[in-house]
Amino acid sequence: MALITQFGDLPDLFFIGLFNYLSSIDILWAFTNLNNRIQTLINERGFFRHINLSSARLSKFDTLLTILPLNQIETLIIDIEASPLQLSHWPYLPHLTTLRLYGLRDFIDATNFILRHSTSLIHLTLETNNLFMSVCIT
């Protein structure tokens, strides 16, 4: 007789190991609000504190934005070429300390976002196709 393992029977270490192979956007997209146990693991492992939405298209981004606890986000990484409208859609993130923007083309949205978060930002990285600039704000 074969034993059947259900999703809920898998140990926490299985999910922790699985999360090491996935991007933060994939973890948030697939596992957020799945069940209380998985949600607790996501919170404990800091997937809401360090968000990399570089590969998120606008439709997926808009959905994720409604489920993210904005007051927990400390690090935000966005590839503007993949998601050019993301910066204009983000509300204020009170604990944002690290911002990395790649593929930057329009400095107006970036400047507005940076200024809005200037009191909390410590690390700022801006990258365009031919320009790499890393700035540390103290």
Automatic annotation (TrEMBL):
Domain spans labelled F-box: 4-51
Record-annotated membrane-spanning stretches: 13-31
Organism (species): Rotaria socialis
Membrane is among the record's keywords: yes
Protein name (record): F-box domain-containing protein
Keywords, alphabetical: Membrane, Transmembrane, Transmembrane helix
